[in-house]
Amino acid sequence: MSESLQNPSVYRALGLSDEEYNRIETLLGRIPNHLELAMYSVMWSEHCSYKSSKVHLKRLPTEAPWVLVGPGENAGVIDVGDGIAVAIRIESHNHPSAIEPYQGAATGVGGILRDIFTMGARPIAVMDPLRFGPLDDPHSRWIAEGVISGVSGYGNSVGVPTVGGEIVFDETYRGNPLVNVLAMGVLPAERLVLGQASGMGNLAVLLGSATGRDGIGGVSVLASAGFDENTDSSDKRPSVQVGDPFEEKRLLEACLELLEAGLAVGIQDLGGAGLTCATSETASRGGAGMDVDIRAVSLREVDMEPFEIMTSESQERMLVIVEPCNLAKVLEISDRWEVIADVVGKVTGDGQLKIRDGFDGPVIADIPAATLHDDAPEYERPLERPIDWFERQRVDAGLAKNSDYESDLLFMLRDSSWVYRQYDHQLFLNTVVGPGDDGTLLRLRDPRTGRETGRGLGMSTDGNHRWCCVDPRAGTKMLVAEAVMNIACVGANPMATVNCLNFGNPEHPVVMWQMSEAVDGMAEACIAFSAPIVGGNVSLYNETNGVDIAPTPVVGVIGMHPSLNTPPPGMGIRNGLTIIVLGQVVEKNVAMGGSRWAWDIADCRDGCLPEFDLDQAVKTASFVAGLVQKNSVSAVHDVGEGGLAVALSEMAIRGATGMTLDGLSDHRLLFNETGGRVVIGVETEKVNDLLEEAKAAGVPVETLGFSGGMKFTIGDVIDIGLDELTEAWRTELPDALGQGTVSA
Amino acid sequence: MTIWRVKVEVSPRSGIADPAGATIERSLPALGFENVQNVRLGKLICLEIEAENREEVEKLVADMSERFLTNPVIEDSYVEIFES
Amino acid sequence: MTIWRVKVEVSPRSGIADPAGATIERSLPALGFENVQNVRLGKLICLEIEAENREEVEKLVADMSERFLTNPVIEDSYVEIFES
Amino acid sequence: MSRHIGVVQFPGTNCEQDSIDTIKNLGGQAEILWHGSDTVGSVEAIVIPGGFAHGDYLRCGAIARFSPIMTAISRFANSGGVVLGICNGFQVLTETGLLPGALQKNVGLKFLCQMESLIVDSTSSAIGKSFKSGEQLQIPINHFEGNYVCSPEVMCELEANGQIFLRYESNPNGSIGSIAGISNKEGNIVGMMPHPERATSVLLGSMDGNRILSALFEGNVKNNS
Ligand SMILES: Nc1ncnc2c1ncn2[C@@H]1O[C@H](COP(=O)(O)OP(=O)(O)O)[C@@H](O)[C@H]1O
Ligand SMILES: [Mg+2]
């Protein structure tokens, strides 16, 4: 056997490089066996080890006085006052969703929820930034519909509301959709638990689903013994993970109950790399070792091999470290919730992760636990700016054909309610502003008593592949600002950020450059907004036939509304308001690179982003949040995709009220996507005070016109009936996705 | 043209977890049904097709079930066709 | 004791609207499947029972499908039993 | 005197805490009735809240109806006790046979979570009597299987006996007669798909749900038929 393992084709088939294999031999001081090699290969995969991204992630700001737990744990945790802590995390499930959209998305939701309740928090919100190929492609529609149904099917059933997200369609995601999922939970600050195993003799209890051959993926090459390519291994083909929200719900309740009762020393969810990851991670975090009895694991299929059991990614499982004296109580709780509980291991003092065949049976793998993590390779992969970068930057993306502004505008309007009304977004009675507005706003209630704190949590997720394709650094800065501006519109000031870095193949130097630039842009913006990064996830190898996706960092920002007595005004305007735009002043000849207009209408992917003044955006965001908190505006909406014209139309549509505006005379002024701008609707008698205040706060203002009537009119360039506007906005998704879909 | 009655049985592939089937199985003893095992829950799609001959129907249904009615990554399907 | 394989087909009762079937039917033409009608979506429950003889299985399954596997207000069922 | 309401919890139920919070905010007392319990104790009315009992596997409510607590609830209801089934609770009540008809998949084959305008029809049930016929209420729905069906004969009976409590103003799910909520003939068992506990605060966009849940506190709930 060992001969076959030294054979490079063996470890290479497991995704290990020669260098990595040699390192394993050195760490062990001997030749690894099948099982050990499988365990290293899953733990040292890009997905688990972050080997290509780690060097860059170190540049992100992670600290603030209110940050209780930063990146590195299952979820970030911040202190939101009154003894309440908030756990938050975002993750991607891109590749599974491309194969089986429903289950890919469902298990994505399940996985991120476990990250939250692992911290001892009850998950109270999910958000789902989604990106798919073009709507006119039946296969992309099939993926989109499956993913949306999967989020709905799992999230609704497990009982966590999906309160916001994004939906984007673009050519770049045709073969490679992006399914990111964010989850947030609340806990009494004193109950914070970490994923570690300490105390020799403590027991490791595996809770939840029986283990099957789910998601074994790359490791399954080991199944065809001897790697004879002619061996038929069809019956052991890697199988797709299937989510069971009902199991997760019971698991969640059981875990929270035993944490509440103080019965767990440590707890860890099983995600990527399954038991291997959970056992080695808890052991090495606690500075301990662990003996694992492979026979004690409940199996869904007979005759599973040890490497399959140790690397299975079967869903809905948790590992809990328990003092022996508390075992009976833990078993009683799991029994009441009808959750399987197997004592699969015990904590030892020697730092070794030993897999045994039977509780005191022979050792079939013996690895220094910490080496699976701490000694994982770390690469500083070469990075390179695209050779035509400067040339592309010099292109004027706004030069294109003289287009029809009205039809451009109608083309860019989209109501996403077709998506989010499939999601329970109201459970737990916290949703003051749900999906469909700018940020989401949730009541903050005390998790111990349910009592209202009189405060609220604002949340938003944002990404923008167009901006980041044109300029990954500045684009990332702008999208952090957009997320902050979204929560400002519901009255929240930012506190923390989580991020999901969706990029192409890290072995392509241009991709590494994109990632490096994005990280720097993100770092700068997060520092400026005092919203440090508390967690995240990296998804690489998003490519189809060698073509990388456009760089797509996605952020989730969470913030605080300090005095939530009345709901924020929302974006809908009513009659008789003065319409004002706040924030960065836009030059007449503003750059159009990376705008939706340049991309989808002028068909131009070059150019540069508009100038972006981050300091100005910080001032504007805090000013807008203040206005909303004081309830001094009647409508508010930030400017994003499609620029001012789209933002204004959305306000008219949502308020079922027309507008007459001026000062936007061409496509540049109508559709540019200069960041950090917010439109407000103000009662006439309040306008003067507001202008004064804005001046004092250093926020530029421009009055655009007034609301009223049933037409949407901008100077002499746009004049559309509200009905037509609304119809264009409302029908795009139902028309496209109601047509039916096919899988290939 | 003849009308053909078609029955497509879709079930989870073996090895693929079937939470619904497993939950039904777990609940049966409490309802007084012992000795039941391997419960799998699938879909049954019945339809009628107008076509010249059986071959045409077979081709159409195979295509339909692979591309639309099932996801072959996790589901198997079995088709029966009757002349009516 | 023998193990019997049982297939229970549950389908919407005739006369009862079947929104799922109707939706599948509506989307077929856009995907290039013409001439399909009367699409009905039902459930397929496969299971195994250990029992002495066929009669016993028949009784058990009839009871199970009436009391549990179908909702008689909206569904009909059809059972097939195989010795395995 | 504050009322003591039992809120049923099956594995997979998820609206129990929302219902309890609402009942308490309205001045009532609430306690969980665990699905494995064979008694309803001393509660004076019962809410079967929304969620996905037993994952809604097979059919919504199909497994839940065999729970010991359902036997106890049937006894309680048969002796005149007031039972309100919300969403999944409504589905459980129809599966149990305590309410007629069935709930199948929405016509659009999509889950729907959205605000709905409801119109009060009959006021003869234990809950309906707090309203005036024709009144409009704003209460959200949140379901995949909310499409009410029954035979034409049952429909005639529902109409004739004043068992139709709520109808949708614009039918979102295909229900026969736009039915959103019904009661049994005696009026002490009520099922509705919309979620009243989600319409209980200005911050949530409507307060109309409070009136539905307050109705549980009114009168001599045990003998109101
Ligand atoms: N996939 C989705 N899931 C839930 N909500 C969504 C989804 N897509 C969009 N939304 C909601 O629709 C609204 C508009 O989204 P978007 O246009 O991305 O907002 P913005 O431009 O303000 O960031 C937001 O409230 C968002 O939460
Ligand atoms: Mg916005």
Structure description:
The complex is a heterotetramer, with one copy of chain A (744 residues), two copies of chain B (84 residues) and one copy of chain D (225 residues). Chain A is an alpha+beta fold. Chain A has 25 helices and 28 strands. Chain A has a seven-stranded mixed beta sheet. In chain A, strands 23-25-22-26-24-27-28 form a seven-stranded mixed beta sheet. Chain A has a six-stranded mixed beta sheet with strand order 1-2-3-6-4-5. In chain A, helix 18 runs parallel beside helix 21 (614-629). Chain B is α+β, with helices and mostly antiparallel strands. Chain B has one domain (2-83): Mth169, Chain: A, CATH 3.30.1280. Chain B has helices at 19-27, 54-69, and strands spanning 2-12, 36-51, 75-83. Chain D has helices at residues 16-25, 68-78, 88-96, 152-160, 209-214, and strands at 4-9, 29-34, 45-48, 82-86, 102-104, 112-120, 136-143, 147-149, 164-168, 179-183, 189-192. Chain D is globular and about 40 Å long. The model of chain D is unreliable at 220-225 (pLDDT under 50). The chains are: A alpha+beta (744), B alpha+beta (84), D alpha/beta (225). The interface between A and D is medium-sized, with 32 and 31 residues. Strand 2 (36-51) of chain B pairs antiparallel with strand 2 (36-51) of chain C, so a sheet runs across the interface. The structure holds adenosine-5'-diphosphate and magnesium ion. Residues 128, 130, 162, 164-167, 416, 419-420, 423, 435-438, 462, 486, 640-641 of chain A line the site of adenosine-5'-diphosphate. Adenosine-5'-diphosphate is lined by residues 128, 130, 162, 164-167, 416, 419-420, 423, 435-438, 462, 486, 640-641 of chain A.
Using brief descriptors, characterize the structure shown.
heterotetramer; A: alpha+beta; 7-stranded mixed beta sheet; about 35% helix; globular; D: about 220 residues; 9-stranded mixed beta sheet; 11 strands; about 20% helix; about 25% strand; disordered C terminus; binds adenosine-5'-diphosphate; binds magnesium ion
DSSP summary, beta strand count of chain A: 28
By secondary-structure content and strand pairing, the structural class of chain A works out as alpha+beta
Broad shape of chain A = globular
Gyration radius over CA of chain B: 16 Å
Could you list the spans of chain A in which at least 5 consecutive residues all have pLDDT below 50? 224-237
Strand order of the largest sheet of chain B: 2-1-3
Q: Which molecules are bound in this entry? A: adenosine-5'-diphosphate, magnesium ion
Q: What is the N-to-C succession of helices and strands of chain B? A: EHEHE
What is the C-alpha radius of gyration of chain A, as a whole number of Å? 26 Å
CATH A-level architecture of chain B:
2-Layer Sandwich
Q: Give the rounded overall mean pLDDT of chain B.
A: 92
